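Why do we care about 3D structure at all? Because function follows from shape, and shape follows, mostly, from sequence. That is the central idea of this module. The next example makes it concrete: a single protein chain, its amino acid sequence, and then its structure expressed as tokens.
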Amino acid sequence: MPSVKRDSTIKEYQNFTKEVYGLPNDRQFSAWEMLSNVQRFLTRGLKGIRKKDNDKSKINFLISFSWLVSLMNQLRIDLEDEIWKRFPYLCSHCRNCPCVCKEKHITERHQNILRNEAKRPKTLTEFQNMFEKIYPSKKRTTEHAGIHLAEELGELSEAMLVYHGSHQNEDFEKIPLEAADVFSLYMDVFNSLKINMANELSGLFYDNCHVCHKAPCQCAFTFITKFES
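And the structure:
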């Protein structure tokens, strides 16, 4: 029975979404439609932040994140590997932990990347803890984290738009970079909300699909498009 555990890795969660949602997603949704679902539930999560409704924010950000992971499956992108390449326990711009971009007015990414593989997080929770150390939640508001998440999702959308217009490999390679940035902002939002994402995913996906509890998911297309959360 496919399920998510509190100590699941990002790779394991990505495999879970593939097993439960891969077949129906490939049959029913294009990449653009999947991205639309990422955006649909993310904006509901932002509404929860605006209304200070943490429960609404939590469920919608979890569903939005799951659509993002499903999109990565459809594009054959290993999200965990891309996150580690982008954030090797360091800020992707200043290459410090914690980040000092604001203090040093850094606006461009450092190109020299040194990765200490011994520090690579194993579980999703460990990745969330890593991002708390790189980008301490005390330095921002939840609203700021949410706005930044929306901004990064816009950059992912732009990268996909460019690739679908050019069909050039160098343009495709920008998609996993932007996806890693989006993931980092999901972590920032959950850290700002003081919510452990892995614990919540394990409660939501304890038995296949969180709605129909089937694997593969058997939720109808019309039901998904009208799903309220």
